[in-house]
Design a protein that fits this description.
58 residues; mainly alpha; 2 helices
């Protein structure tokens, strides 16, 4: 596992968690950005990307 991949996954996780429960379009957009960053880190580390909608807990 790369340090950069782990950092991206962690930063994406935090961004997603901070915004996933917001009802506004802006919150949902930021949650998706976090999910995308998280997936980018996961792919770099050879893990499959998360495919569920942000905020579903999976």
């Amino acid at each position: 596992m790369s340090v950069q991949g782990k950092a991206k996954e962690a930063a994406g996780y935090v961004k997603e968690e901070m915004n996933e429960h917001g009802k506004s379009a802006e919150s949902q957009r930021k949650a998706q950005e976090g999910r995308d960053l998280r997936n980018e880190g996961r792919v770099e580390d050879g893990k499959p990307p998360k495919t569920t909608k942000p905020g579903t807990g999976h």
